[in-house]
């Protein structure tokens, strides 16, 4: 069984996910947003208590609220960061990103250890996560899609009734809308999208109800 554990972290109310295979204990951490020490403890306690083996640290994109905990995960579980190279510039200016919101980074961000590209596959036990590149919220936005379970981890590309903002550096509204329509709306309508903020949604719901995509 594929187990999905969701955590709500940091001042931006970001969703961090631990996705694990119940048989092997292999797991991926998707968007490690843990900023405060108690959030870091919550994440590591869950992994240790459930005897999970962290195989991947996957980033849907490299905005600071989704990556506060990258260094902690690296130091604790010795797993490097996997992200799209088109977002690497966001690591270089993460200190500036933080200052815009009055936040102080506890340490410099870790660099990308493994680049991810369209259709790359990440195996967690018997399950696979396929990378789908959807730029627009950021140039390197990645969706991690598990066809076997009919789920996808969408970061800030698509929300319930909304889409990711496109006014940040590297954002592009037309790219985002086109990517959602051409790459996500071709998925089965019952596909569940676990978003980077707020509740989950489905492809079918967004096709019918999302005002940005009508």
From TrEMBL:
One of its GO terms (molecular function) is metal ion binding. InterPro entries: MBL_Glyoxalase_II, Metallo-B-lactamas, RibonucZ/Hydroxyglut_hydro. Pfam families: Lactamase_B. The keyword Iron-sulfur does not apply. Residues 13-197 form the Metallo-beta-lactamase domain. Keywords: Hydrolase, Metal-binding, Zinc. Its cofactor is Zn(2+). PANTHER family: HYDROXYACYLGLUTATHIONE HYDROLASE GLOC. This is MBL fold hydrolase. It comes from Coprobacter fastidiosus.
């Amino acid at each position: 069984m594929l187990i999905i554990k969701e955590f709500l972290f940091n001042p931006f109310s970001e969703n961090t996910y631990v996705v694990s295979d119940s048989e092997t204990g292999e797991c991926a951490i998707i968007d490690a947003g843990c900023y405060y020490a108690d959030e870091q403890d919550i994440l590591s306690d869950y992994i240790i208590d459930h005897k999970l083996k962290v195989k991947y640290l996957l980033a849907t994109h490299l905005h600071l609220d989704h990556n506060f905990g990258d260094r902690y995960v690296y130091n604790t579980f010795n797993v490097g960061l996997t992200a799209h190279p088109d977002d690497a510039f966001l690591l270089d200016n993460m200190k500036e990103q933080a200052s815009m919101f009055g936040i102080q980074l506890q340490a410099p961000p870790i660099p990308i250890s493994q680049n991810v590209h369209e259709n790359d596959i990440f195996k967690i036990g018997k399950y696979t996560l396929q990378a789908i590149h959807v730029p627009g919220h950021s140039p390197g936005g990645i969706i991690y899609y598990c066809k076997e379970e009919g789920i996808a981890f969408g970061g800030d590309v698509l929300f319930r009734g909304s889409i990711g903002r496109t006014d940040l550096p590297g954002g592009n509204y037309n790219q985002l809308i086109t990517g959602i329509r051409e790459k996500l709306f071709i998925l089965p309508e019952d596909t569940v999208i676990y978003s980077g903020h707020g509740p989950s949604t489905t492809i079918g719901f967004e096709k019918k109800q999302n005002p940005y995509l009508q």
